[in-house]
Q: What sequence folds into this?
C-alpha cells in the first residue's frame, strides 16, 4: 500500500511516463505541485518568464520528440496565459499536457482570488480536459491524459487540479501502468485497392502531404510512394521536410505563398492523393476551384476530416503510416514520362522567384546564407509573418521534424520559446529561430529563460520595423492605407538581448555579414542575430485571401 | 504595385444558408460527469447548429448518461455527428427520425 499527496502522485506519474523536463511558472494554487517537484531527481523544471512561453517550450519539445510534453501553471492568470499555446497545439495536433493549479474545491464558483473557469475556457481548445475532484481520480486522469494526447490524431489535454486535491492524501495498491498510444483504427483493404487502381489509371496525379505524415513518422513511406508511382509531390506548411525540397519530385509548398508552378500543377491534376492533410483554406484557396478536375483520395486518421472541405472519391480513416504500408505493395511502378516532363516545363516557366538570393542583406539571401552554415541536423523554427513564408519557400528542408512552426493558429511569438523547447529536447542540435520584430516582441521575455538554460538557440531577426504581412496586405488589398502596421519608434533589440544576458550580433554594420553570421551560428549558446530588412519587400507569389490559387499576384 | 492589382480585394465568403425544416433526433451515450453537457452544447453552439430540445438523464448505475437532442437537419448533419463522436466522453451516437416519441409528451410543459 502506498500513500502520498495528490501533488506527489502527479509528479510520480509524470516521471513514470518518462517526463524529464517541465516548463512552467509557479503561483499560489500550484505550490503543492512545485513542492512535490522539488523532491524529483528526474524532472528538470524550466522556469519561464510567462506562461505562454512555458506552453510553447513544451510544444517545442513535443514537436521534436513526437511525444507528449508538459507545461505547468497556476490558476487564474497562469491558466489564461497558457491558453494561446494550448489552442496552437490543438490546431497543429501537437501532443501536450497542460497542468494547472485551481483554487480549492470548496471555493470554486465563489470568485475566489485567482479563480477562473479553466475547464470551461479550455473545452474548445483541447482534445480533452479534466477538472480533478479527488486525489484518487489522478490515478486515472493523468494516464488518460497521456493516452488521449498521443493516440489517433494527437492534441493537447489539460488537467486542472484544485489546491486541496494536490494536498489530499491518497492510498493505492500500485501505480497505474505506463500508457502507450491506442491502436490506430482499422481500415478497409478494399478502399486501399480502389486507391491503388485510381493511382494506376491516373494520368496527372499529384501527392499532397500534410502534417499527419510527420506525426505518423511516415515520411519515408510517402517518398517511396511518390517514387514508385512517379507522383509530383506538394507539401503543406506543416509537412515541409517530409520530402526533401531538392527531391526531383518535390513541388514545394502549395497555397497562398506557394510557387506559381506548384499551384498550376495542382490545377491540372486529374487525381489528388491527400495524405494527412486537411484542405486548409491557406493551402487550397477557394474550395470550389481547387484541383477542379481531380478525383480525390483522402487518407487521415481523423474521420471527421474526411469529406469535411472536399468530398473524397476514396476516403480512408487510418494511420497514415499503416495505410501507406498497405498501399505501397499494391501500387504499380510507373514512369509517367509525359506528366513529369510537363510538370518540369511548368517549373521552368513559372519557378519560385527568389530575388536577392545572393545578397545576405535581403530576405531570401539571408535564409540561404543561414542554410549554408548549417547541415540537416539543425532544427529550424519560425515565428509568424513574412519571414515565416520566405523560410517556408526557400529553406532546403530535408527531414521530418526539422521545421517547427505555428501552422493552424498562426501565433506570433511561437518561434522563440518553441526553439528553446527544441533545444532542450535535442541539446546536441543547433536550433535556429527565424523571427520578425513584431513576432519576437510577443515572447521576448523568454530571452531570460534561454540565457538561464544556456540553450543553443540562435534567433535570426528580420527587422523591418513593421507587422510585415499586415503591411503587405494593406498595400495590396486596402488601397495602400497603412494603418497600425508600422512601428513608429525603432527598438534596440541588441540592447534588449544584452539586458537579458544573451549575446547579440548585428549584421547591418558587419563588413562581411556571411562571416559574422557563420561565427554566430557556430558558437554554442543563445544568440540574437539582427538584420534590417526593407519593409517594402513583399512575399510573392500571393493568392488574395479567399481567391482561387490560380489567381496569384506577383 | 502595378495597376492591374488595384482592383483586387480580399474575398470573404458569404455566410451559407443553414437550417432545414426536417427534424432529427440524436441519441448520445456519454460518460456521466459535470462538464459533459458543456462539451456537447459547445460544438453545436459554435456552428450555430439549431438545437430545438435537449433531454439528459443518468442511466443505470449513473456511470453514464443518455442525452437526447432534437435538431433541425441541414447538410452539415453528418459532419456535426462526426465532431460529436470525436469527443472523449461520447460513447455512441445514434440517429432517429424526428417523430421519435422521446420528445412527444413534453409539449404540456411548454404551454
A:
Amino acid at each position: 500500500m502506498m500513500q502520498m499527496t495528490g501533488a506527489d502522485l502527479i509528479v510520480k506519474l509524470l516521471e513514470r511516463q518518462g517526463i524529464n523536463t517541465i516548463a512552467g511558472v509557479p503561483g499560489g494554487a500550484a505550490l503543492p505541485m512545485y513542492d512535490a517537484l522539488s523532491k524529483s531527481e528526474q524532472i528538470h523544471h524550466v522556469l519561464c518568464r510567462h506562461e505562454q512561453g512555458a506552453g510553447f517550450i513544451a510544444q517545442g519539445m513535443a514537436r521534436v520528440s513526437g511525444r507528449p510534453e508538459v507545461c505547468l501553471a497556476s490558476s487564474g492568470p497562469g491558466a489564461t496565459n497558457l491558453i494561446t499555446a494550448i489552442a496552437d497545439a490543438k490546431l497543429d495536433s501537437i501532443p501536450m499536457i497542460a497542468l494547472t493549479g485551481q483554487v480549492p474545491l470548496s471555493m470554486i464558483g465563489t470568485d475566489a482570488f485567482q479563480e477562473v473557469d479553466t475547464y470551461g475556457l479550455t473545452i474548445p481548445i483541447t482534445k480533452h480536459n479534466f477538472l480533478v475532484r479527488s486525489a484518487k481520480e489522478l490515478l486515472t486522469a493523468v494516464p488518460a491524459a497521456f493516452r488521449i494526447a498521443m493516440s489517433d490524431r494527437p492534441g493537447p489535454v489539460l488537467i486542472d487540479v484544485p489546491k486541496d486535491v494536490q494536498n489530499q492524501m491518497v492510498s493505492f495498491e500500485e501505480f497505474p501502468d505506463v500508457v502507450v498510444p491506442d491502436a490506430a483504427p482499422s481500415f478497409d483493404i478494399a478502399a486501399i485497392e480502389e486507391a491503388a487502381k485510381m493511382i494506376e489509371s491516373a494520368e496527372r496525379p499529384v501527392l499532397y502531404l500534410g502534417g499527419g505524415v510527420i506525426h505518423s513518422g511516415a515520411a519515408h513511406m510517402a517518398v517511396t510512394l511518390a517514387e514508385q508511382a512517379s507522383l509530383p509531390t506538394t507539401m503543406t506548411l506543416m509537412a515541409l521536410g517530409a520530402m526533401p525540397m531538392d527531391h526531383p519530385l518535390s513541388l514545394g509548398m502549395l497555397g497562398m505563398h506557394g510557387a506559381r508552378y506548384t499551384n498550376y500543377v495542382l490545377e491540372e491534376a486529374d487525381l489528388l492523393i491527400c495524405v494527412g492533410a486537411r484542405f486548409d483554406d491557406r493551402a487550397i484557396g477557394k474550395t470550389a476551384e481547387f484541383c477542379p478536375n481531380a478525383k480525390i483520395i483522402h487518407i487521415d486518421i481523423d474521420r471527421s476530416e474526411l469529406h469535411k472541405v472536399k468530398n473524397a472519391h476514396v476516403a480512408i480513416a487510418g494511420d497514415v503510416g499503416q495505410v501507406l504500408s498497405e498501399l505501397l505493395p499494391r501500387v504499380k511502378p510507373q514512369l509517367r514520362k509525359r506528366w513529369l516532363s510537363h510538370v518540369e516545363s511548368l517549373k521552368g516557366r513559372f519557378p519560385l522567384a527568389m530575388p536577392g538570393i545572393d545578397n545576405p542583406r535581403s530576405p531570401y539571401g539571408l535564409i540561404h546564407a543561414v542554410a549554408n552554415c548549417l547541415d540537416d541536423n539543425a532544427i529550424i523554427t519560425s515565428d509568424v509573418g513574412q519571414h515565416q513564408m520566405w523560410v517556408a519557400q526557400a529553406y532546403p528542408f530535408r527531414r521530418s521534424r526539422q521545421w517547427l512552426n505555428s501552422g493552424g493558429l498562426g501565433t506570433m511569438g511561437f518561434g522563440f520559446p518553441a526553439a528553446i523547447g527544441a533545444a532542450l529536447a535535442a541539446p546536441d542540435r543547433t536550433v535556429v529561430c527565424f523571427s520578425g520584430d513584431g513576432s519576437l516582441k510577443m515572447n521576448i521575455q523568454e530571452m531570460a529563460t534561454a540565457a538561464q538554460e544556456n540553450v543553443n538557440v540562435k534567433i535570426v531577426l528580420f527587422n523591418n520595423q513593421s507587422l510585415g504581412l499586415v503591411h503587405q496586405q494593406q498595400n495590396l488589398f486596402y488601397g495602400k492605407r497603412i494603418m497600425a502596421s508600422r512601428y513608429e519608434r525603432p527598438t534596440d533589440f541588441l540592447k534588449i538581448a544584452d539586458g537579458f544576458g544573451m549575446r547579440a550580433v548585428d549584421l547591418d554594420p558587419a563588413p562581411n555579414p556571411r562571416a559574422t553570421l557563420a561565427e554566430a551560428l557556430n558558437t554554442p549558446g543563445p544568440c540574437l542575430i539582427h538584420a534590417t530588412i526593407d519593409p517594402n519587400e513583399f512575399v510573392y507569389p500571393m493568392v488574395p485571401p479567399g481567391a482561387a490559387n490560380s489567381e496569384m499576384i506577383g | 504595385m502595378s495597376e492591374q492589382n488595384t482592383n483586387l480585394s480580399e474575398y470573404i465568403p458569404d455566410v451559407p444558408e443553414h437550417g432545414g425544416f426536417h427534424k432529427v433526433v440524436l441519441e448520445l451515450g456519454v460518460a456521466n460527469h459535470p462538464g459533459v453537457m458543456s462539451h456537447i452544447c459547445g460544438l453545436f453552439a459554435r456552428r450555430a447548429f439549431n438545437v430545438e430540445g435537449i433531454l439528459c438523464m443518468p442511466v443505470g448505475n449513473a456511470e453514464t448518461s443518455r442525452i437526447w437532442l432534437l435538431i433541425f437537419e441541414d447538410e452539415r448533419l453528418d459532419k456535426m455527428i462526426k465532431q460529436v463522436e470525436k469527443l472523449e466522453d461520447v460513447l455512441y451516437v445514434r440517429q432517429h427520425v424526428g417523430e421519435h416519441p422521446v420528445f412527444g409528451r413534453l409539449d404540456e410543459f411548454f404551454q
In short: The mean pLDDT of chain B is 86.
